[in-house]
Amino acid sequence: MNFMVYRIGDDCVVVDAGMMFPGAEHLGVDVVIPDMSFLEECGTIHGVVLTHGHEDHIGAVPYLLARHDVPVFASPFTRELIRNRLAEHASVSADCLRDLPDDRPLQLGPFAVETLPVAHSIPQARMVVLRTPFGNVVHTADFKLDPDPVDGVGLDLERVAALGREGVLLLLSDSTNADVPGFTAGEKTIAAGLDQAIAGHDGRVLVTTFSSNINRMRQLVDLARRHGRRMALVGTSIQQQAEVAGRLGLLDFPSGMRTSPQTLMDGAPDRALFLVTGTQGEPMSALARISVDKHREVRVGPGDLVLHSARRIPGNEKSIGRMIDHLLRRGARVVTAANARIHVSGHPARDELRLILQLLRPRYFIPIHGEFRQLSAHAGLAHECGMSDDAVVLIESGDVVAVNEQEIVRAGRVHVGQVFIDATLDEVDWAILRDRRRVAGDGIVVAVVAVDRENGSMNEFPEVVSRGFVPDADGAENGVMSDARDVVLRTLEDATPEERADETMLKARIQTDLKRFLRRRTQRRPLIIPVIVEL
Amino acid sequence: MNFMVYRIGDDCVVVDAGMMFPGAEHLGVDVVIPDMSFLEECGTIHGVVLTHGHEDHIGAVPYLLARHDVPVFASPFTRELIRNRLAEHASVSADCLRDLPDDRPLQLGPFAVETLPVAHSIPQARMVVLRTPFGNVVHTADFKLDPDPVDGVGLDLERVAALGREGVLLLLSDSTNADVPGFTAGEKTIAAGLDQAIAGHDGRVLVTTFSSNINRMRQLVDLARRHGRRMALVGTSIQQQAEVAGRLGLLDFPSGMRTSPQTLMDGAPDRALFLVTGTQGEPMSALARISVDKHREVRVGPGDLVLHSARRIPGNEKSIGRMIDHLLRRGARVVTAANARIHVSGHPARDELRLILQLLRPRYFIPIHGEFRQLSAHAGLAHECGMSDDAVVLIESGDVVAVNEQEIVRAGRVHVGQVFIDATLDEVDWAILRDRRRVAGDGIVVAVVAVDRENGSMNEFPEVVSRGFVPDADGAENGVMSDARDVVLRTLEDATPEERADETMLKARIQTDLKRFLRRRTQRRPLIIPVIVEL
Fold it and tell me: Has residue B427 been placed in a domain?
């Protein structure tokens, strides 16, 4: 969850306000955002500067705006993504959204903020330069040095070199790939791999990639045209992002190319290319549902080809693997980045980071973005580039660092917990923000389900038990728990054998159904924890 | 769980009888073995042939022997590992263990069984050839074509070629790396990488590798000698396997080299090399405990070096990553197979598999060992080698295949469930075999713990709830559940802040402590499911 506060006296600027999607260990939670209560003691917040539109950089903006009336500066694509998100939050207005200029500095209190366009796996990403009375601070956020970007927008190394000559007090730079040697290849370099994978194939083609990777989509549009295929977008997020990109002139479908999934399914297989959400095998995503033949519109079978054109986020390897196995069982051929050149990272590898360090020659350095091992690898690289131990500070969430021309020192910690948000309901409202008091008030409901792998039977289960959950305002139970048990039973009955065999998918379904039932019936949102026991 | 039954009429031979370690989704379970009830209808089992000593090939042997009085044939190293395991099972005798000859066929009913020594990541692995009236069946099990193995033992390609000339009806071959191009490098090729990682380092060195990789240990002994370091083995399994290997002449420590962990900790850091269990970040393993400073004997700090000389088993990436982060936070340097050449696979890559297919020229082929996507890749390779669709059968657990000189066909399924075993207690007894009836009888206990990431506090939690668990023979509760709550409270109090922040580790501790308490107090073994909620 990227959320950086820069402060001089009582004047602050915030760079990025992200959320994260919880891992399997955060059962019952949909979204995690930073606890922003420390902002109360930060004096005046002159503005929020957003570097790009990925959820881990903008996801917390609605929750921030619900509590703080501050201007939010972002490039057009990023701004439109936030506007879509704000439309779901009735209590938050989009009036505070402002343009982030790229041709002149923006004065926010004592900070003169400049931004440089960078290449990344989403359009209109920016690197931030904060000019302060103490010197210049460069905050790269996510970027890569793609020398031949699809949309022609990349980092101007001349400007970076000029910054270095002018002097950089402090650099904060992207560590995601700091342990990967060499340079990250440019986005265009995978065109050949994608082409080769599709060439000569006469069944349907499904491609999954991250929804916001508009330049990847542009390459796929070219590919579809070359191979005489029409395209359909499957999944809400990919449709939304394509709509925004289209409106801003960042993505263009040739006339007659885009059509509905149903039309493509009804037409000739060798004329169809589906762009599908679900790169991480997320249980409710389009591709995961297609893989177990539970999708409303799209089906795959023998002769079809699925391209996984995306990174495997650590922790998701097993769910991705299971999804691929399901697709293979249906007879589809699956090509991934492991066996073809159809994906490339959006983050800079070690030699790109070295180049940035060499051009900027910062006095002080803080590696950001990445697990501790990547921050640590990036610090090692700074040492290779001649920086001393005193000049590099490794930080984790909540650490405060003080810096001026003479020194950089650790200066204590602020409280930065995690706040869990419940967002899979029909609508999203900032008021459901789930903090400590809220969970304590609505309690916990545990649904224990026993599945027999062989026949899917359930014996005497499911059991639904609760603690601290009072279904009714006057404390009466009114059969809610036994009805909840029936809801789970129905979920199990509706599940296909493949869903029953896939615990992650089954858990997600139980959670969604039970949550919806309890909310409608009791107006309460207990934390719902599905537990699957295999017998 | 590898468990293959070959059958002619009413005569059977079993090849391998493995178990698996459950993933995070099997909370409350320690070991999973195949449901072997289908063996009851298999006629006469003339013997069990074990290919090598990895748990996924031999782990179910004690449970098999508890129900079936059959001879078990294995090479000496494999046999001694099973003997150790059987010593923990009071009711099962080791009398049935037999030598697996490598110089003459073994007649088991209508099967003449021959074995060929192969290189693998454990000593004395064998490939199995079953000569039958219908033709020869080759079952490779796990192997690699290491042309220069550390112990000099590898596959004799001349014998493989002779088998091909003689004729092979059916091949079953290792698919683990079927989607990896090229050849797997030999074990000796990593000596230089290990040497380079250690050379010039003047702090302590810790190396983690799989306990049974005796040839890796031999290379580490050489390395320690070259660098003037003494060695200590940390962790039960590594000590046991080294003891067996030493007794059989497969591993030899030069005089004075091996010492206790305590002696090494007290001595000069640049004279110490620890061999440590815990390659997968398993929460109770030696290295995981060292990483959070909770190990009884070994500590790491600035100036120390940790080498991760092992594969990352899919699904374990996050726990391994977290362990590495902890080690880095303590100031240690960590080198992994991702950034140095210090590990090599024990399985054959695509071109080795191609070679085997080309030399054996089987009439029929069944890919084994691997997820469906690897089996599928191996089937694709067989097609590349000229085999027709009819000649290759993709199978999953429980599938029955019938084969003779004319055809290979699917012939239905047998019931092969999973049986869950509870094995983290003080002793292990086959009678605790946890089948459907057992879980239904002892019930389920769910411990819900809420941890505040910031301060580790617990609010009104933990809560312990149960279903189907009757603590006392006469049904009385006797305060067991509230005492259980106290046990969990104590576990939480004893945990370090780092353990509290690591949910996998915390879950494992809660489970172990609660299990032990409930068993002592109630003589019952309910399924224990720890649920951690972060607030």
Answer: no
Query: Rounded to a whole number, what is the distance in Å from the CA of B411 to chain A's nearest CA?
Result: 18
CA distance B352 to chain A (A): 17
Distance (Å) from the alpha carbon of B306 to chain A's nearest alpha carbon: 13
- Asked if the structure places residue A455 within a domain, the reply is yes
Separation of alpha carbons B323 and B336, rounded Å: 12
Number of residues in chain B = 535
Q: Clarify whether residues A52 and A176 are in a common domain.
A: yes
Q: Tell me the two tokens of residue A368.
A: 């950001």
Query: How many domains, in total, are found in chain A?
Result: 3
Q: Domain of A529: which CATH number?
A: 3.10.20.580
Cβ neighbours, 10 Å, residue B244:
23
SS3 B427: coil
Same domain, yes or no, for A34 and A137? yes
Q: In angstroms, what CA-CA distances link B400 with B111, B140, B364, B396?
A: 19, 19, 15, 9
The CATH number that applies at residue A217 is 3.40.50.10710
> Are A57 and A163 members of one domain?
yes
B294 and B403 fall within a common domain: no
From the list A24, A439, A454, which residue is nearest B417 (CB)? A454
* Residue pLDDT, tens place only, B237-273: 999 999 999 999 999 999 999 999 999 999 999 999 9
Query: From CA B333, how far away is CA B342, in angstroms rounded?
Result: 15
Chain A residue with CA closest to B181: the answer is: A339
Answer whether B529 sits within 8 Å of A534, measured CB to CB.
Answer: no
Out of A319, A336, A353, pick the residue that ends a domain: A336
Q: Looking at A16, A30, A146, A174, which residue is catalytic?
A: A174
Contact A325 B27 (CB under 8 A): no
Cβ(A369)–Cβ(A175) below 8 Å: yes
Domain assignment present for residue B25? The answer is: yes
CATH no. for residue A50?
3.60.15.10
What residue type is assigned to position A251 of the chain? L
Same domain? For B116 and B243 the reply is no
CB-CB: which of A417, A467, A529 is closest to B453? A417
Per-residue pLDDT tens over the stretch A357-396? 999 999 999 999 999 999 999 999 999 999 999 999 999 9
Choose the mutation target among B38, B305, B319, B372 for the interface with A, i.e. most A CBs under 10 Å. Answer: B372
Are the C-beta atoms of residues A519 and A429 closer than 8 Å to each other? no
Measured between beta carbons, which residues in chain B are less than 8 angstroms from residue A1?
Answer: none
Phi, psi of A85 (to 5 degrees): -65, -40
In a domain, A509, yes or no: yes
Q: A527 contacts in B (CB within 8 Å)?
A: 533
User: Is B158 in the same domain as B9?
Assistant: yes
**Predicted pLDDT of residue A507:** 80
Q: Which of these three, A317, A336, A355, is where a domain ends? A: A336
CB B128 within 8 A of CB B15: yes
- Pick from A448, A452, A529: which is nearest to B467 by CB? A448
User: Do residues B42 and B142 share a domain?
Assistant: yes
Identify whether residues A22 and A163 lie together within a single domain.
Answer: yes
- Show the domain range for A298: 187-336
Q: What is the pLDDT along chain A (535 residues), one digit of tens a residue?
A: 899 999 999 999 999 999 887 654 444 456 777 888 889 888 999 999 999 999 999 999 988 998 899 999 999 999 999 998 888 776 778 889 999 998 899 999 999 999 999 999 999 999 999 999 999 999 999 999 999 999 999 999 999 999 999 999 999 999 999 999 999 999 999 999 999 999 999 999 999 999 999 999 999 999 999 999 999 999 999 999 999 999 999 999 999 999 999 999 999 999 999 999 999 998 889 999 999 998 999 999 999 999 999 999 888 888 899 999 999 999 999 999 998 999 999 999 999 999 999 999 999 999 999 999 999 999 999 999 999 999 999 999 999 999 999 999 999 998 876 666 654 433 333 333 333 344 445 667 888 777 665 555 655 567 777 766 766 555 556 688 888 888 998 888 888 777 777 777 788 788 888 888 988 888 777 777 787 766 5
Q: What is the pTM of this model?
A: 0.82
Cβ–Cβ below 8 Å for B439 and A533: yes
Nearest Cα of chain A lies from the Cα of B149 at a distance, in angstroms, of 28
Q: Which residues of B touch A328 (CB under 8 A)?
A: 372-373, 376
Query: Measuring CA to CA, which residue among A72, A91, A90 is closest to residue A82?
Result: A72
CB burial string B427-447: b at 16+ within 10 A, e below: ebbbeeebeeebbeebbbbbb
**Chain A / chain B CB contacts < 8 angstroms:** 116
